[in-house]
Design goal:
Blueprint: H1 2-23, E1 40-57, E2 65-84, E3 87-91, E4 94-104, H2 110-113, E5 114-131, E6 138-151, E7 172-185, E8 190-200, E9 219-233
Antiparallel strand pairs: 1-2, 1-9, 2-3, 2-4, 3-5, 4-5, 5-6, 6-7, 7-8, 8-9
Amino acid sequence: MQKVVVLLLLFSVQTQAQLGKSLFTKDPILNLENFDKQRVYWGYYLGFSSFDFKTDFKVNNAPPIEVKGHTGFNVGLVGVLRLHEYVELRFEPGLYYASRTINYSQFTREIDAVREVKATYIDFPLLLKFSSLRTGNVRPYLVGGVSTTLNLSSNSKSEDDNLQQKFRVKPWTQNYTVGFGIDLYFEYFKFSPSIRGVFGLSDELIRDVDPNSPWTGNIESLKTRAVLINFTFH
């Protein structure tokens, strides 16, 4: 994820260098002057993500569990309803490819110690976007809201559990999202990079059949945590 952030910063610097006269000068030529007067408009986004789990334990001095997130990919559509000059209601359904590695320190064999938890999410977020006053061709904003997510790779219907190397989670989860970004107005489109945090609201773990399972027995709750970097085009 650090590499992704560096690439985003480099992209921003390059954009400023190439188009500084139209975006960041004191008296720029205004692009898309009437764009924000639209009541309804559409767009799409591409981006990167890093998903993790927030794990709470029943007994804190038990052998630790380490969760490592990996960089994934996300793509989706955007529908916007303008409620006010500075407030938008946004529906941003998307497809997220994510992967996590869970390491159980009490095991010596890799087949028992490591669980690769891959996920394909279909996300249905409903968000509010709060924009600042536009300055030239730049407009910062905050965004937040809630979402319902379907995990197509949850293994929830599998009768096998971790004894058969099957790590299971619930197919439907609820989350809240907060983030910030900036609208950049170009001659023919509006470009909006943003960084967002996603926080699960409910326990996602499906326990093993054995209540004393070394994989799930000590877990009180398992909730999604994620960082998203989205590049939105309108």
